[in-house]
Amino acid sequence: MRITNLFPMPICQTDLHRELTEDELKFFALEKEKERMVNMGNTFTKNKYVLNTPELSNLKKDLTDLVNEYLHNVWKPKYDVEAYITISWVNYTERGQFHHAHEHSNSAISGVYYIDTDENDTITYVSPQMNILRMKIAPTEWNTWNSEKWTMLTPKNSVMLFPSTLKHSVDETSNPKTRTSLGFNTFLRGRLDDTLAEIVL
After folding, report:
1. In angstroms, what is the C-alpha Rg of the chain?
2. What is the pLDDT of residue 73?
């Protein structure tokens, strides 16, 4: 029997390929001390454009390069299309806190850069198909076809990239330190298909 893995969901996990500089670390340390927005289960920065600060200009370029590498490897654009980062913010999850299941609107590709995590920190992705048989079948083991969600480790200095429509969450963390991650959304510009329409923003 041949089973084809048709229409897979492309999840990218990679490393930043460098350590944060002293200026970048100082910026994140100062940002952590500022007043935050309260989320369902954790908190995040009031500043929704952290990557637009001069101290993070190199980090923004590095993350933009990774997003575009992912875009071109997966979608193989026929025309000149590029992704650019729109909003960006820092998430803080204390011990015993969590991040509720959600997706990102008004974005093409979303990403998370893990600033400070431990070896047990994870992210969970929720299957967009959610029980394709409309029946509940108890499995002997979980795989990429029968799972309704999938959890992956999130090492420090790693980057996750995924379609913004994919729902994701963070389970209650046992990390004794503050789990700190940088989230960001992107949009596309350029000619997308064979029509004359072009997205220019």
Report:
1. 18
2. 98
In whole angstroms, what is the distance from residue 141 CA to residue 128 CA? 20
60 — phi, psi (to 5°)?
-60, -45
Tokens of 66: 């990774």
**56-74 pLDDT, tens per residue?**
999 999 999 999 999 999 9
Token digits of residue 102: 């959600």
The per-residue DSSP string of the chain comes to: ------S----EEEE-SSPPPHHHHHHHHHHHTS-EEE-SSSEEES-SBGGGSGGGHHHHHHHHHHHHHHHHHHH--SS-EEEEEEEEEEEEE-TT--EEEE--SS-SEEEEEEEE--TT-EEEEEPSSS-TTSS----SS--TTT-SEEEEE--TTEEEEEETTS-EEEPPP--SS-EEEEEEEEEEEE--SSSS--B--
Does residue 193 surpass a pLDDT of 90?
Answer: no
